[in-house]
Amino acid sequence: MTPKIARFLTQHQPATPCLVLDVDRVEENFRALRDALPLARIYYAVKANPARQVLRRLVGLSSHFDAAGIEEVEACLDAGALPSAISFGNTIKKVSAIQRAHRAGVTMFAFDSREELEKLARNAPGARVYCRILVENAGADWPLSRKFGTTIESARELMLLAGDMGLDPFGLSFHVGSQQTTTQAYELAIGKVAMLFTDLTNAGVNLRMMNLGGGFPTRYRDEVPEIDRFGDAIMNAMTAHFGNNLPDMAIEPGRYIVGDAGLVQAEVVLVSQRDKNDPVRWVYLDIGRFGGLAETEGESIRYRIKTSHDGSATGPVAIAGPTCDGADILYEKSNYRLPLALTSGDRVELLAAGAYVTTYCSTGFNGFAPLAEHYV
Amino acid sequence: MTPKIARFLTQHQPATPCLVLDVDRVEENFRALRDALPLARIYYAVKANPARQVLRRLVGLSSHFDAAGIEEVEACLDAGALPSAISFGNTIKKVSAIQRAHRAGVTMFAFDSREELEKLARNAPGARVYCRILVENAGADWPLSRKFGTTIESARELMLLAGDMGLDPFGLSFHVGSQQTTTQAYELAIGKVAMLFTDLTNAGVNLRMMNLGGGFPTRYRDEVPEIDRFGDAIMNAMTAHFGNNLPDMAIEPGRYIVGDAGLVQAEVVLVSQRDKNDPVRWVYLDIGRFGGLAETEGESIRYRIKTSHDGSATGPVAIAGPTCDGADILYEKSNYRLPLALTSGDRVELLAAGAYVTTYCSTGFNGFAPLAEHYV
Fold first, then answer.
1. What residues of chain B lie within 8 A of the CB of A359, using their CB?
2. In degrees, to the nearest 5, what angle opens at C-alpha A302 toward C-alphas A300 and A305?
3. Could you give the CA distance from residue B171 to residue B131 in angstroms, rounded to a whole number?
4. What is residue B318's three-state secondary structure?
5. Are B296 and B45 in contact, with CB atoms under 8 Å apart?
6. Phi/psi at A218 (nearest 5 deg)?
7. Chain B residues with CB-CB distance to A267 below 8 A
């Protein structure tokens, strides 16, 4: 918790649940990542937190932006980003979204299928396109599955085709999965994609960019490697493959930039021991999987939880949200422990919850209002 | 698809994705359920679809209401429901929510723990309370897990205590899980809970209500038993236990009332064969798990999908949503097949999607706007 957030909570006692995010920390994280990878251009993954305050601060730092949808493109433009600083990174785009982005001056688009390439050729002629390659997501707490990316063979074919279709075959991309906790995932992916890069260059394609995706982790309950280690591993892998002749490098951090800049303050609604013979207490918060903590699905993202009783005796707990939905359980199997003194009405903080909470939350499931947001 | 919905779609060509719901069908379903269980009082589970048009129609039919949160209580009152027709059915309630409901005249509350009972005694003195018992959820497509309900032993203790605390120990409840496809689940649960009911009555507690919960299924991809079969099974089980001396019966249908009254119309954003050696095409829609189809988590609820190419040759597909989230996959393992002619820009309908879509959807993940709603 940053001093500014602590002060805000003390002075304002905001209604819970709410996100409180320190925009200065966003800047610190941006600078730390730039220091760790000075040769890479940072495209902030807007979906992690599209708040205007975050976007404006990043515009001031000359960040680039990775937009997942046309509304995110427009939010970046509204916040002062230049169209040339925006990459439309979703490989699945409506024709109308491509047209709107193209009209707005966006010139860089992702794709991973022939069908999408054809849509781009028709609706954003001349655009710089980059093809997403499917790579291993081992080591990621929030892997990206088979939904995105194509094979090396298919990517090669499509990139050769792109030029014939009047597009600019600009680069290749991959994504090692979100909250990626091993540097090796990047090394392996770079090795795979760099070979195709060289192969296509030799075939006469004027490739200029390697987009290394995002995935850089935030520290939740478990330790993660420092960002410098990712920077070193990536640069070593890139120079091993390209030597002095490095292509442009792009990265798409989201979680790393905003994750630990924010916390969610919540209220304990109920603590109950469901079975006298079971020491596990059930702790129900006023926020759950449908109120913003969607990434607790499968107990994937395990937030650290701070209480005012920290330091006193603890016992095992299951933690659940406030809705009538049986799926609205945050942690039942992750061996959480909370103070025995914890009781209904207490406030708790879920730390490093600045990413993927505000826009994931439901519009009003069980009548609960969307998560309130405070930027300090 | 009802004729009114078909007409609306033809005449208005609404922007997708959207829910279109025929309120007349809501009334038909309400009447069918009332006919199947004439002795049961229907508490509509507002969380299934809290639209004002639905609530007002049901108020006109003298329905009662099961509210999961204080905002739902207030939505019912706004729609014209009497406070006496509202049950605050969430066993996990903030003190402030209990106070607001009590002040609004609501007199019936659920609980399943001593802590919640104490909150009710302090903040809604004199209220009618009912205790939720944990029962088996086998046979349910959307089971409710260990999150709710207590044991017979604990319920007995708490109901005896309720009177001493100045509350009215009104009844017992259970829930067999949502989209429950077997009548046996109700029979088993009634058997278990009715024994406690009789036991408590013999102990001098003035119990008057058995709340049988919801769970009544809508027909999705697979057939489900007719509602009359549930009605018969429930009445047989109730009379087997209580004879002529039946307590008040309450049921809390949500999905059954609104499910098949609505459909979601979506647009195909992309069809791509990700691997030449794999016949599975990936079909990306403009709605996914974060846009309202949350119940496709784990492929639990399997919607029927209608296309304009129906009747032509089909092939295997995986179906995914439009966001950059790898978890945003609807069906990968459920052996869906869709027409080979299906292509980007086509409209499709997800049938019987009137329940649990509008309020589950995210406020703006990846920038996508919440699901549009049309009531006809």
1. 362-367
2. 160
3. 7
4. strand
5. no
6. -105, 155
7. 94
Closest to A255 (Cα-Cα) out of A228, A211, A209, A295: A295
Task: Give which of A95, A123, A129, A82 is closest to A110, Cα–Cα.
Answer: A129
The Cα–Cα gap between A40 and A32 comes to 12
Measured on CA atoms in the order A138, A144, A145, A147, is the torsion positive or negative?
negative
Chain B: give the shortest CA distance to residue A35, in Å: 27
The shortest CB-CB distance from A92 to any of B284, B297, B365 is to B284
Q: CB distance B114–A328 less than 8 Å?
A: no
CB-CB under 8 Å, A363 with B362: yes
pLDDT exceeds cutoff 90 at B323: yes
Say if the Cβ atoms of A323 and B367 lie within 8 Å. Answer: no
**Interchain CB distance below 8 Å, A90 and B368:** no
Q: Is A18 a catalytic residue?
A: no
Asked if the Cβ–Cβ distance from B274 to A113 is below 8 Å, we say yes
Q: What percent of chain B has pLDDT over 90?
A: 91
> pLDDT averaged over consecutive 10-residue blocks of chain A (376 residues)?
97 97 98 98 98 98 98 98 98 97 98 97 98 88 82 96 97 94 95 97 97 96 95 97 96 98 98 86 96 94 97 97 93 97 98 95 86 97
The ipTM (two decimal places) reads 0.93
For the record, the structure tokens of B185 come out as: 């689940």
| Domains, chain A | 23-258 (3.20.20.10), 260-375 (2.40.37.10)
- Cβ B147–A328 below 8 Å, yes or no? yes
What does the longest C-alpha to C-alpha distance in chain B come to?
A: 72
How many contacts does A have with B, using Cβ atoms within 8 A? 208
Chain B residues within an 8 Å CB radius of A69? 322-323, 366-368
B362 confidence band (pLDDT: 50, 70, 90):
confident
HSE-CB of A30 using CA atoms within 13 angstroms: 23
Q: Who's near B202: CB < 8 A, 6+ residues apart?
A: none
Dihedrals phi, psi of A275, to nearest 5 degrees: -145, 125
Better-predicted residue by pLDDT, B120 or B275: B120
Comparing CA positions, the residue from A213, A255, A259 lying closest to residue A234 is A213
Q: Could you give the CA distance from residue A350 to residue A16 in angstroms, rounded to a whole number?
A: 12
Assigned token pair, A106: 């966006």
Enter the DSSP assignment of B243: T
pLDDT tens readout for residues B228-256: 999 999 999 999 999 999 999 999 999 99
For testing contact with chain A, the best of B96, B147, B157, B282 (most A CBs within 10 A): B147
Cβ contacts of B366 on chain A, cutoff 8 Å: 47, 68-69, 72, 90, 359
B207 neighbors B160 (Cβ within 8 angstroms): no
Higher pLDDT among residues B94 and A143, named by residue: B94
> Which of A72, A344, A362 comes nearest B360 by C-beta?
A362
